# Entry
Amino acid sequence: MRHRRPWIESEPEHCGANEYVAQPVTEGTIHCPHCGVETPDIMPTNACVRFWECPACRALVKPKPGDCCVFCSYGTMPCPPRQR
Ligand SMILES: [Zn+2]
# Structure
């Protein structure tokens, strides 16, 4: 015989599992081609980063030919528009 416990009659709905919507990764790491320092940076989800200044050596990093942004060229992952 199943004992009924009224205080847990309804399932809790505050676990938050359904609130997570799959989003492209917006955090990447740029590997500077000039000094080799890796810098974590935020990738904008609605634009491409065409110019990026390395905080370590102050070099202006540009994407390689054919790449849309510096994250595609030197980052650890492609930029958000390409992850879709
Ligand atoms: Zn650098």
